[in-house]
Amino acid sequence: MATLRDIRRRIKSVKKTSQITKAMQMVAAARLRRMQESLNNAQPYSQKMEGVVAALSSRVDRSLHPFFEEREGTRKLELVVVSTDRGLCGGLNTNLFRRVEIFLKENRERYQEIRLYLIGQKSRDYFRRRQGNIKATKTHLLGGKVDFGIVVPIAQELISSFLAGEAQEIGVFYNQFQSILTQRATYQGLLPIRANGSLDGEAGDHGLEYIYEPSLNELLTHLLPRYIEVQLYRIFLEAQTSEFAARMRAMDSATSNAHEMIDRLTLTYNRARQAAITKELMDIVNGAEALR
Q1: What is the pLDDT of residue 218?
Q2: What is the pLDDT of residues 15-27, one digit of tens each?
Q3: Beta bridge mates, 113
Q4: Helix 121-129 to helix 92-106 angle, to the nearest 10 degrees?
Q5: Residue range 110-139: mean pLDDT, rounded
Q6: CB 149: neighbour CB atoms within 10 A?
Q7: Which partner from 159, 222, 267, 289 sits 20 to 30 angstroms from 77, CA to CA?
């Protein structure tokens, strides 16, 4: 049975832990606010870029541009997995890796080869233990912020891999930030660029014809790599914002649990102290009775 000294030490230890988790929660909250601001600033640009690419690509023969090329035959997928470098963010990485594992299992027959391009230390450690087909790993890139200069070399490397025929498709798994309470593991195809709800022409042109200088094909040639860079930049922002939101909630939960544990330990300590005092009083009374 724990002594009063042991319980006091335990209470002191849990109080120190709660101070640490509270400080980490406050740091994560401050970084989350800054990252949300960056994400909110980047999203309109990303959406407008997608709209511009949609409007331009609807006016050209997409087969002339390799970024739109749907290649036949043997299919190889290069899968980018964007995780965190550090832990203490709840089940954020666990949910992401579970989705990736399901995707790999479901698409095993569809692709001849799936190579992993891992961003973040947690994804590197996870897939190394499972002996995945790893092409490259990048760790400690972000450090609490997302700089566009970090994204460009990665985007160029992925584009080069696609254009060289090393991969017929390139996709990204990341944690999409929906709210402070919700971050969803999401898959997004990067290359080839496929027509979707927005890539069928921009709704606001009303069928108007434009004269382009330089030519439309030349404009797309310069714009499409930039489009991939911007999309990857937004994905990194989403992943980093999700990390801070998850860490803030995890540390808040840890702090609350520590306070509850302190309350339980304090109650246990008071009961044990009361029992010890009662026992001492009984010993004194019994001793006095024996002296009569």
Answers
A1: 80
A2: 999 999 999 999 9
A3: 76
A4: 50
A5: 87
A6: 6
A7: 222
Could you give the maximum distance between any two Cα atoms of the chain, in Å?
117
Is 57 in the same domain as 16?
no
Answer yes or no: is pLDDT of 202 > 60.
Answer: no
Q: Are residues 276 and 227 in the same domain?
A: no
CB 219 within 8 A of CB 6: no
261 closest CA partner among 253, 249, 271 = 253
What's the domain count of the chain? 2
* Whether 242 and 258 share a structural domain: no
The H or E element containing residue 119 is strand 113-119
| Run of H or E including 45 | helix 4-57
59-70 pLDDT, tens digit each: 777 777 788 877
Q: Which of 42, 56, 89, 185 is catalytic?
A: 89
pLDDT over 50 (residue 201):
no
> Residues 54, 55, 56, 59: is their CA dihedral positive or negative?
positive
Query: Do 283 and 202 share a structural domain?
Result: no
Burial 113-140 (b: 16+ CB within 10 A, else e): ebbbbbbbbbbbebbeeeebebbebbee
Q: Which residues contact 250 (CB under 8 A, 6 or more apart)?
A: 88, 89, 90
216 with 200, same domain: the answer is yes
Residue 74 lies in a domain: yes
Question: Tell me, what CATH number does 15's domain have?
Answer: 1.10.287.80
**Claim to verify: residue 243 and residue 258 sit in the same structural domain:** no
- Let me know whether 283 and 192 are in one domain: no
Domain hosting 14: range is 4-23+253-291
Residues 14 and 132 in one domain: no
What's 67's DSSP letter?
G
Is residue 89 annotated as a catalytic residue, yes or no? yes
